[in-house]
Automatic annotation (TrEMBL):
It comes from the Bacteria. GO terms for molecular function: riboflavin synthase activity. It catalyses: 2 6,7-dimethyl-8-(1-D-ribityl)lumazine + H(+) = 5-amino-6-(D-ribitylamino)uracil + riboflavin. It comes from Solirubrobacter ginsenosidimutans. The lineage of its organism: Bacteria, Bacillati, Actinomycetota, Thermoleophilia, Solirubrobacterales. This is Riboflavin synthase.
Length: 194
């Protein structure tokens, strides 16, 4: 389990694509805290570290993760949001994030609003039904609060700290991002449907 509070902005150093999937190598200051078999969220996708050496960890990305996330489009040199799993003694400062990406949205618009930046995303309807104004959502693994919603999109307002410490600081229209909707909304829907 994660919180959506990005711990480091890593850099993809290698992408090895085969017919079986993709192996990513990521350089990060967090590598020293990882052991083989540990979970790490990469742009919100929970992956398993398979090797660690010289400040770089490797992780395999299976076809299911490639289909549901934007990791299929990641290239060498790409920055990625990284978070290690929540420890029982840690504060839950963001929201409950599983690292199970539900799908991909696309940046629609970016505009400044004082010192903040408002980013709007076009979202598939099957995911938008779980998004509520002032609710929680993870975008590329970043825990955010929805500031506005309409029939096809939602917006978030980003503070300078988020802009500086995450990949969302360079978000531009057309860029795909990973979405994980609030897991509680999915459980409520299932209960109500009974």
């Amino acid at each position: 389990m994660f919180t959506g509070l990005v711990a480091d902005l890593g850099t993809v150093t290698a992408v090895d694509s085969t017919q079986d999937g993709v192996r990513l190598n990521v350089k990060t200051s967090l590598a020293g805290e990882l052991s083989e078999g540990d979970s790490v969220a990469v742009n919100g996708v929970c992956l398993t570290a398979t090797a660690i050496a010289d400040g770089v960890f490797a992780a395999d990305v299976m076809h299911e993760s490639l289909r549901r996330s934007s990791l299929a489009e990641i290239g060498e040199g790409s920055p990625v949001n990284l978070e290690l799993p929540l420890r029982a003694s840690d504060r839950l400062g963001g929201h409950i994030v599983q690292g199970h990406v539900d799908g991909v949205a696309v940046v629609r618009e970016v505009r400044d609003d004082g010192f903040a930046r408002v980013v709007s995303f076009d979202v598939p309807s099957e995911l938008l039904r779980y998004v509520v104004e002032k609710g929680s959502i993870a975008v590329d693994g970043v825990s955010l609060t929805v500031s506005a919603i309409d029939e096809t999109s939602f917006s978030v307002s980003l503070i300078p700290e988020t802009l500086e410490r995450t990949t969302l600081g360079t978000a531009e229209p057309g860029r795909p991002v990973n979405l994980e909707v609030d897991v509680l909304a999915k459980y409520v829907e299932k209960l109500v449907a009974r």
